[in-house]
Amino acid sequence: MAKKVRNKVAWIVFVLLAIGIGLYPLFYLVTSGEFGLLLGKDEAVRTSEVWRFAFYGHIIFGGLALLSGWSQFSKKLRTKKLNLHRNLGKFYVISVLVSGLCGIYLGIYATGGIIPSVGFISLGIVWLFTTIWAYLAVRKKDLTLHQGMMIYSYAACFAAVTLRIWLPFLTIIFGEFLLAYKIVAWLCWVPNMIFAHLWVRRKGLTLA
């Protein structure tokens, strides 16, 4: 009984975090001024139309991926509304493709130099790779591989949440935003992938 309660609480927290951060890009759309990560960019970068296009593409479709992706882990949705599950899955894949490609481009201009750049570019590649693999697997009716890759994919997607959890704590600990940002470029997603690996093993999903 206690385990069921813990699982339910964990699920609720998981969904609320996904929805909360998924809606976060709205702040950039409804405010006229610049805030958040935009403030830390050089003027030459901020005024680049290509960079701004990639930035808004990344945060908007990344938010949509967060908002739609959590539903793919709902057993009730898969069993009772399979068509909705499939349509949301397709929507998630499209959102990831747009956000992931934009994210890789943005990674080139990441604040702090080569360390965060490689971290965020690697995240984008892993996110795209696992999502495409999950899609191809379900097309081949390999549901085990599909489920496993979706766990990895959403773990990468959830980096948007863990980044916003870790960054303020690291900034307080080190007393410096730039150092915290260099660390969080890796910390926001590598532990997520380790957790995903343990989850896949626990569920007995063979990915060979």
TrEMBL record:
Pfam families: DUF2306 (PF10067). The keyword Membrane applies. Keywords: Membrane, Transmembrane, Transmembrane helix. InterPro entries: DUF2306_membrane. The chain crosses the membrane at residues 9-30, 50-70, 91-108, 114-138, 150-173, 179-200. This is DUF2306 domain-containing protein. The lineage of its organism: Bacteria, Pseudomonadati, Bacteroidota, Flavobacteriia, Flavobacteriales.
